[in-house]
TrEMBL record:
Residues 89-107 have a biased composition (Gly residues). Residues 62-110 are annotated as: Disordered. This is DnaJ C-terminal domain-containing protein. It comes from Hyphococcus lacteus. PANTHER family: DNAJ HOMOLOG 1, MITOCHONDRIAL-RELATED (PTHR43096). It holds the Pfam family DnaJ_C. Keywords: Chaperone. PROSITE patterns: DNAJ_1, DNAJ_2. Residues 4-69 form the J domain. Residues 62-78 have a biased composition (Basic and acidic residues).
Length: 307
């Protein structure tokens, strides 16, 4: 048995025509079979919504319903004299309802009321069909060395079908980023899919990356720490000479401007930070031991209490 069409659309009998159309569109989109495949309840709900709108979406039919001339199924009621109403006689009696001639969802409504619903639903279906027609996307993982990632490199990968693809890894590439090779995936009726390559960057034995900056530890001797001088420090672009100030403590950090990771299209580069670490000679040093024994200065010792 059909329900009151106002209740079906969640409206009151005082609802405006615009409110009726809005309610119908929202509910029809929600319960349309294309969005609810193999859902019998959603299908039945959609039919109920459409039948309700067939009555309320047409101003003349709505008036008749409000005056009691139509029942909840949209059929014209018999007059007190046992004859069909004029509308029923012309339309074939009860057959003029949702299941008879001229019936069906939206029979009394303007087709424009369905326009946005069908365009959304069929547009989504067409997009889905186009995607299905394309070949399948393929995903790979590629391990690259640290220096290749920060400086940029060319790599060749072999596909399962035997094809070789050349990859360009831009300078400054980060761990976990993905390269897309458009149209290089599996073939399909609607074109080829894409290849997505996730790049995993291997850690480096000396360098550590933090954003666009590079950090590295550089060992120095006690003599270099006390007297200062030049030491060789590695960078991602090769070794450079670094000036160590006199009396540099272990842990002192020197900044090499522009020696970090290239910033790609934006230009420039990060910085490199060199952390000095005083290293004692392997196997000991008798002269150094003798010097320390004779050295009485305590000026270099810092009082942790701040005194």
């Amino acid at each position: 048995m059909a329900r009151n069409p106002y209740i079906v659309l969640g409206l009151s009998p005082k609802a405006t025509d615009a409110e009726i159309r809005t309610a119908f569109r929202q509910l029809a989109k929600k319960y349309h079979p294309d969005r609810n495949p193999d859902d019998k309840k959603a299908e039945d709900k959609f039919k109920e919504i459409s039948a309700a709108f067939e009555i309320l979406g047409d101003s003349e039919r709505r008036k008749k319903y409000d005056h009691g001339e139509l029942d909840d199924d949209g059929r014209e009621r018999a007059n007190p004299f046992g004859q069909w109403s004029q509308r029923g006689a012309q339309g074939g009696g009860y057959g003029a309802g949702p299941g008879g001639p001229g019936g069906g969802p939206g029979a009394g409504a303007n087709f424009e009321d369905f326009g946005d619903i069908f365009s959304d639903l069929f547009g989504a279906r067409q997009r889905a069909s186009a995607q299905q027609a394309r070949g399948r996307d393929v995903r790979y993982r590629l391990d690259v060395d640290f220096l290749d990632a920060v400086n940029g490199a060319k790599k060749r990968v072999t596909m399962p079908d035997g094809r070789n693809l050349d990859l360009s890894i831009p300078a400054g590439f980060e761990d976990g980023q993905t390269l897309r090779l458009k149209g290089q995936g599996e073939r399909g009726p609607g074109g080829s899919g894409d290849v997505y390559v996730e790049v995993k960057v291997r850690p480096h034995s000396m360098f550590e990356r933090k954003g666009d900056d590079i950090h590295v530890d550089v060992p120095i001797s006690i003599k270099q720490a006390v007297l200062g001088g030049k030491v060789t420090a590695p960078t991602i672009a090769g070794d450079v000479s670094v000036n160590v100030p006199k009396y540099s403590s272990s842990g002192t950090v020197l900044r090499l401007r522009g020696r970090g990771v290239p910033k790609g299209k934006s230009g420039g580069a990060g910085d490199q930070y060199v952390k000095l670490k005083i290293v004692l000679p392997d196997g000991g040093d008798a002269e150094l031991e003798d010097f320390v024994k004779k050295w009485k200065s305590e000026k270099s010792r810092k009082d942790f209490a701040g005194a």
